[in-house]
Structures are given as C-alpha cells and as structure tokens.
C-alpha cells in the first residue's frame, strides 16, 4: 500500500478559506459535544536555539479523521530565510493505523489559525463590525484577514501596527489588493486599535504590548500570538475586564494568552467565560452588550489541523488526483 505525499503547493491549490472555516467550525462543535479525542499538545524546548517543537495528535470519529501534527516555532527563522512556523501532518487510517498521507501542515496551520479567529469573531464580536486592527502583520495576520472576510465581510477598514514597518506595509498591500479594504499603517498600537471592532494580535511577544487603555469598548480581541509558556500580548487588566473564551483549558492555561496571569494567580478557571467549542455546540451567548470586550485565546487545537488535513486528502480522493501524487512505500 502507498502512503501519499501531499506537498504544500498541493494543499494551497485545493484548500479555500471558506471550506477551512466550515471544517474548523465543525471540529470545534464536535469538540464542544465531547465527541473527539485530543490529548493536550506536548512541547520540546530548544532553548539554545530560541525555538520549540510541538506534538499534536487528534481523532475525530464522526468524520474518520485521525493523525498527528509536528510543528515548530522559531521566531528568528526569518534570518535563516525560513518561516517561523513549519508543520508536517501524518494522516492515519483509524481502522488499521496505516499512514494514509504525509502532508505539509504549514499552510494548514496558517489557514486553520485564521479560521479559528474568523469563527471566534462570528460568535463573539458585535454584529456590525466595520474596522479591524492588526497588531503584528506577519504570516498569521494574512490568514486572520482572509477568515475575517469570510465571517465578517462588513469590515471595510483595517489599521496595522508591526515593529517592522516594511512588514506592516506589505500586509497593508495584501489587504488592499485581495479585499479592496482601506488599509493604513499606524504609528503605535494605541492608534491602530482606536475605533476597532476586532483586534487581531499575532505577534511573538513575551510581554504585554496591548494595554487596557488601547482597547475600545465593545472590541473583540483575537489573541493568537501567545501559544507557548511565557508568551503574552495583552495587559492582564484587559483579561480581567473582558469575557474570555479559550479553545481548551489545559492548553490555554499552559501556553495561551492566559498562561502568565494564571501562573501569577491573577486569573483562574472561574474567570473564563467558555470554551469556543461549547459556544458553538451549546449556542452559549457570551456577548450581552455592544460594550462588552470579548477575547478569544487561541492556542491551536490538533483537531483544527486534522479536520483540514482530512478535507484536503478527500478532495484528492474525490477528484481522482490522489493516484497522481508522489507516493512512498514506507514499509517496503
Ligand atoms: N494560536 C495559534 O494557533 C497559533 C498558530 C500559529 C502561530 N501562532 C503564533 O503566532 C505568532 C506569529 O506567528 P507568524 O507565523 O505570524 O510569525 P511572523 O514572524 O510571520 O509574524 C510575526 C510578526 O509580529 C511582529 N512583531 C513581533 N513583536 C512585535 C511587537 N512587540 N509589536 C508589534 N509587532 C511585533 C513581527 O515583526 C512579525 O512581523 C507566533 O508567536 C506563533 O507562535 C499561534
């Protein structure tokens, strides 16, 4: 039997953000219904090299998807002309354990992270959103805007802040060229957030950079960047004042935006409004006023990866293209 090799260019060719949002929302819902298996991700820390490697297994019986993602985060990789995040997914047949495919998980990671932010905005942000802020304008910012345009297409203006002005300018062009959005580069985080209905934070910061005074009443914040122990982007005072939704308590308290305030005992599980899966599955209403500040703390679930890997694999099955992809006889 053959194990198929699905390259990044193949994943990019077939995975649309519309489909990714749909698949990812299904995975969150099934998680909220308790119908999945997903041990928390485990980490190897490459402290000498300012990086880490995460191991992320998941099984979704309802759709038959199972497997494991291995993904690194090395924030200095740009200097080595490599992406910060690179991932490989092993898609496994749950019936036999046979490795169906080895596939690029980098694009899936970026897409499903964007999709989670878009889904969170759909359920947690105000109904009418016209302006969004982007703090950090790298890879994850691109997929955040892609998903936001699927779930909140009323957004017509974005304001961007990145410590690297060139990156901010490039992202502004991305927004204008792909979505015709009015995109401006702000001189500070405070200016970028002014008047924003949605604030997307996608930096690799290890200290709070968005302060309470920066956040307008009614804003929804996607806290995406903090996904490892010690990382944080938000002033804990914002977390105390907001309705905080997480993807998973074990992961979020270990490595999400809340990890440092939880460690410092500024925040406990009682301060968390809900898990996103439960918001979707149980139609839990988190926002009760246009003045509420809501936060989605995303650490990234293996379920998000596996549901999209399975979706991509099945596109190739359905189109008959699977047989044309490169194969490996691993056990040959
Ligand atoms: N939650 C998740 O599921 C998930 C998934 C993937 C990546 N991430 C995390 O998201 C973060 C960004 O990943 P990426 O792939 O976009 O990386 P990237 O390197 O492409 O982009 C990060 C951007 O943030 C900017 N930045 C860094 N510090 C800043 C600061 N203090 N103020 C303003 N801008 C700043 C950098 O200049 C860079 O442009 C990383 O921390 C990564 O670990 C989270």
The appropriate CATH architecture of the largest domain is: 3-Layer(aba) Sandwich
Assigned CATH superfamily of the largest domain: NAD(P)-binding Rossmann-like Domain
Q: Can you summarize the main beta sheet?
A: 8 strands, parallel
Q: What is the tally of helical segments?
A: 11
* Outline type: globular
Strand arrangement, major sheet: 9-8-7-10-12-16-14-15
Q: Please, how many domains?
A: 2
Ligand species: nicotinamide-adenine-dinucleotide
Number of β-strand runs: 17
> What CATH first level of the largest domain would be assigned?
Alpha Beta
SSE ordering: EHHEEEEEHEHEHEHEEEEHEHHEHEHE
Concise overview:
The protein is an alpha/beta fold. It has helices spanning 8-14, 17-32, 106-124, 139-151, 165-179, 189-193, 236-241, 249-255, 259-263, 276-281, 302-319, and strands at residues 3-6, 42-46, 51-60, 65-73, 85-92, 99-104, 131-135, 157-161, 182-185, 198-201, 206-210, 220-223, 232-234, 243-246, 272-275, 294-297, 327-328. Nicotinamide-adenine-dinucleotide is lined by residues 73, 84-85, 109, 113, 135-140, 161-164, 167, 202-205, 209, 224-225, 227, 298-300.
